[in-house]
Design a protein that fits this description.
elongated; 2 domains; 199 residues; single chain; 4-stranded antiparallel β-sheet
């Protein structure tokens, strides 16, 4: 199935399965592919972001299940609070999936990290389709789900033949995105699958 993802500026990505087949103006792509499903988004299409804290946020943090909010709260747990929790592979994997879902809400399409040591976490990351890239340099400050907290680098530009990984932010342009931050994310797509959509 062909899907055209289009933003408010008229930019579009033509997606077939897991891959971007073409990029360009919506009018041109729609004319060339009249049977493609069109998904119009508010704001701008971007390549998304690479969060530099993959190990810290996925292996060294526990993301509570909403059903645990009464006992554990809703914020990620680290340090002594994490050490006090009985952990097994199932719980680690579930935490990693919730952590990835929270990253997706900020337009994150990849994590930078040292090799993930916990197999349950590696499997959870692989199943979601989140890309893993090598960490380029240490990052100062506490880990954050928000890529703007540490000036996370954008993912590589989306070109024909690249993986259909991108994000949509409800802003007019990149300047407004930098001013308002990644909390303006309305959708994140990984391998052509819409994995986050703000309601």
């Amino acid at each position: 199935m062909l899907t055209l993802h289009a933003d408010s500026r008229g930019h579009a990505h033509l997606v077939r399965g897991e891959w971007i087949e073409a990029v360009g103006p919506l009018e041109e792509l729609a004319a060339a592919h009249p049977h493609a499903r069109v998904r119009r988004w508010p704001g701008i299409l971007t390549p998304g972001f690479v969060n530099p804290h993959g190990n810290e946020l996925l292996e060294e943090t526990y993301h509570p299940d909403p059903r645990e909010a009464g006992a554990l709260g809703t914020e990620p747990l680290t340090g002594p609070a994490l050490a006090a929790l009985p952990m097994d592979d199932a719980r680690r994997a579930a935490s990693a999936r919730r952590g990835i879902q929270r990253m997706l809400a900020y337009g994150t399409v990849a994590v930078a990290c040292e090799p993930l040591r916990v197999r349950a976490v590696r499997d959870a990351v692989r199943r979601t389709g989140m890309a893993v890239v090598a960490r380029q340099a240490p990052v100062d400050g506490p880990p954050s789900l928000d890529p703007f907290a540490h000036r996370a680098r954008p993912a590589p530009p989306r070109l024909p033949g690249s993986a259909a990984d991108f994000a949509v932010f409800d802003v007019e342009d990149e300047t407004e995105l930098a001013e308002r931050g990644a909390g303006t994310c309305v959708a994140t797509v990984l391998s052509g699958r819409l994995l986050f959509r703000r309601r």
